[in-house]
Amino acid sequence: MSMATSATFDPFSQSFTLLLRDGTPFNVTLNELDDFILYSVQISINYAAQLGACLSFLIVLLVLTKPDKRSSPIFAINAVALTLNFLRTLLQCLYFTGPFNKVYAYFAVDYSKVSPSDYANQVAITVLTWVLLVCVEVSLLLQVRVVCVTVRRGYRHLILAFSVVTAGLAICFRLAFCIENAKSILSLESLFPLRWLASAANITTSISICWFCAAFITKLGFALDQRKKLGVGAFGPMQIIFIMGCQTLVIPAIFSIIQYFVDLPSMDSNVLTLVTIFMPLSSLWASASLDYRKQSTGKPKFHGGILLGSNGTASTGPLVDKKCLVGPLSPSETATSSLSQSNPPSPSNIRDQGVNIDLESQKMVVRGLRHN
Fold first, then answer.
1. At CA 140, angle to CA 134 and CA 146, rounded to 5?
2. How far apart are alpha carbons 282 and 37 in whole angstroms?
3. SS3 at position 308
């Protein structure tokens, strides 16, 4: 090889020749092979991480949820969603370790070695994704319905109607993409002409999640503001749901946006996984806090006219202390507390008339948590 040829030769971009079944040669460059391997490794790591996270949270949900709460609809939806997402990511990992992802099959577009079960697995992936989205949308609908139970009837109907529309659009677009994707898998045709449908399914899903969580957080934000005005500053289930609602809104929204700017394989799949993981996490955290509060707010004990604390020690303080209040309190409980011991306020004398409504809303949410 001459010096001029050696100076222009790049060994990292050289090509090699492969043969089709009929003996026709075709060339593959090392750069193309590197891109194929890098893509397979990156997307396998992504799906493997989602698989491990779903399996871990499913085990946590089954272990930490009390037996009497396992019959609730929310527990069933959360458990089913985690199971579906686990199966979906497992089948995705099997795809990238199966005959579809062989070097020769990819570059020669020869899938004659692929078995019918491998085709069935790929169709199952797109179907499981649609069913998972249905579970997520139903769960968010149930949460918004509970949170908006004390909103004025007109506003409540408007919120629920818009929620149904956004959820329906996301489900319908995903169903259409599921059908077209299954057809392309079975016919071994490219889905590139229908990339707009995949983008529309992702966009409507992101809009739906953001709308549900925005409505959820807004109502709870008003409720927490009313609790603050009452002087109830304890960190309870309402604050926990508020924080987890923010997390459910912000993090999946970020992932759904950056997928159009960051060149990482299958970023859109993380959106449903994150929502699926956060839903049972918020429920477990709020339920654990509620159980702790029930244990720490037992009835006072008396012995010889002396008030005893929870640990049996004597206490000379007042029977009710504002700092010890852990809400939510009903209007009647508020009227008998030490917020104003000389003249207990009636519901009509409370500065903000909307306080009682929000307190009742919080009690309904807390009752729902007890049944989870």
1. 135
2. 38
3. strand
- Which pLDDT band holds residue 283 (cuts at 50, 70, 90)? low
Average pLDDT over residues 28-32: 93
Per-residue confidence at 303, pLDDT binned at 50, 70, 90? very low
- For residue 193, say if its preceding peptide bond is cis, omega within 30 degrees of 0: no
For tokens 């992101």, what's the residue? Answer: 206
CA 323, 324, 328, 330 torsion-angle sign: negative
Least confident among 6-10, 43-47, 128-132, 152-156: 6-10
Q: At what angle do helices 269-296 and 237-258 cross, to 10 degrees?
A: 170
**H or E segment at 223?**
helix 195-229
How many Å apart are CA 55 and CA 53, to the nearest integer? Answer: 6
Task: Name the 3-class secondary structure at 28.
Answer: strand
Residue type, 123: V
| Helices 237-258, 355-370: inter-axial angle, 10-degree rounding | 80
For residue 212, what pLDDT band results from cuts at 50, 70 and 90? confident
The DSSP symbol for 261 reads T
Tens digits of residue pLDDT in 185-201: 999 888 888 889 988 99
DSSP 15: E
Separation CA 21–CA 218 (nearest Å): 62
C-alpha distance across the termini of the chain, in Å: 75
Which tops the pLDDT comparison, 135 or 7? 135
Which of 50, 46, 139 lies closest to 86, judged by CA?
A: 50
